[in-house]
Amino acid sequence: MSLRADVGVTLGNLDLGVDITVDPGELVAVLGPNGAGKSTLLRCIAGLVPIDRGAITVDGQPLDAPGEDLFVPPAQRPIGVVFQDYLLFGHMSALENVAFGLRATGTPRREARAAATEWLERVDLADHADHPPSALSGGQQQRVALARALVRNPRIVLLDEPLAALDAGARGAVRADLRRHLESFDGMRLMVTHDPIDAYALADRVVVLEAGVVTQHGSLPEVTARPRSTYVANLVGLNLLAGELAGHTLTTDRGGDVVVAHSNGDGPSFVAVRPQAVSLHRRQPEGSPRNVWQLTVDDIDQHHHRARVRLTGSVDIVAEVTPAAVAELGLHPGERVWASVKASDVEVYAR
Q: Which residues partner with 8 through β-bridges?
């Protein structure tokens, strides 16, 4: 008994091919850069975009199966959706917004309002039932949207960037509220987000979607411990290099060599390096570092007490140093500089 979404659809330049499963009581977060196809995936499951190939089933019942010429309209699917901007009706009260989904499927007005009242009580908004969305805070609007999604007792709730419309100061409290309310729902939950903090706080499992395909999946600690793409590495602030490992040396596509302290066998591999482990020098360093490259400063991004120096050459790598070190070394874009990393600070794993 689960959601199985084998989704294949082509929209413009996006060729989406995703196969994911969500079990009852589980919240899966889909992470990915803009344009990866995250929201399109949700729209396909909701029935707002028909798929071209594959099949979408809930508890074994097909909702969209192009091969069988079967398509269940959105209103008839056991799915509730919380949209990124909530899409509340401005001319309706909070109560009327929550009741709308039931009324649209033929539920009598009195019964729909009674169910909506119950859900507003569950999300602690009973005192705001008569208020229009404009009189509610962003967090309160989100709770109305969530109540509207859940009032129909769906098997699945889809959440599209549920915290994106909130300012940074409100997100922490609203995120805690959202987690509490979602825990009371024993169906399947699928959330799209670009924020790893949301995934860490809310999700049981994450799926990383890039350019229409899944590049990694698992728990967030599993995914971030060993990134398999530059996108994931950037999320957690790591340098990621790919190449061929032979013995204790990985050779990148550009011909740069990275020496590792511990090898797990030859073949296609990744190496991950913390920016804090990269040292910068004006002259070629002497001593113990096994990895030494002469590179070009591409960009310098300073934030308070730290500076991130992006370097290009035989390897592309980011070093994190102090602003004082930037000044002392006289670093500027276009400058040549030496970078070093100890082999013991390089983690290697198979691709």
A: 17, 53
Helices (H), the chain: 38-46, 94-104, 109-122, 138-150, 168-183, 196-202, 220-225, 230-235, 323-329
How confident is residue 168, by pLDDT bands cut at 50, 70 and 90? low
Name the residue type at position 182. Answer: L
Q: Are 175 and 186 in contact (CB under 8 A)?
A: no
Positive/negative CA dihedral, 42, 47, 49, 54: positive
Which helix H or strand E contains 216, and what residues bound it?
Answer: strand 213-218
Answer for the pair 145, 86: CB distance below 8 angstroms, yes or no: yes
Q: pLDDT tens, 104-115?
A: 888 899 999 999
Strand order in the sheet with 257-259: 257-259, 249-252, 239-246, 267-273, 346-350
Query: What's the pLDDT tens digit per position in 235-267?
Result: 888 899 999 999 999 999 888 999 998 887 889
Token reading at 224: 């971030």
User: What pTM did the predictor assign?
Assistant: 0.79
* Structural domains of the chain, ranges and CATH numbers in brackets: 3-229 (3.40.50.300), 237-350 (2.40.50.100)
What percent helix, strand, coil does the chain show, rounded to 5?
30, 35, 35
In the chain the first and final C-alpha atoms are separated, in Å, by: 33
Q: CB of 115 within 8 A of CB of 99?
A: yes
Those residues with Cβ within 8 angstroms of residue 106's Cβ, 6 or more apart along the chain or in another chain: none
Say yes or no to pLDDT of 320 above 90. yes
Residues 13-27: tens digit of each pLDDT? 999 999 999 999 999
If you write DSSP's letter for every residue of 92-153 in order, what string do you get?
Answer: S-HHHHHHHHHHHTT--HHHHHHHHHHHHHHTT-GGGTT--GGGS-HHHHHHHHHHHHHTT-
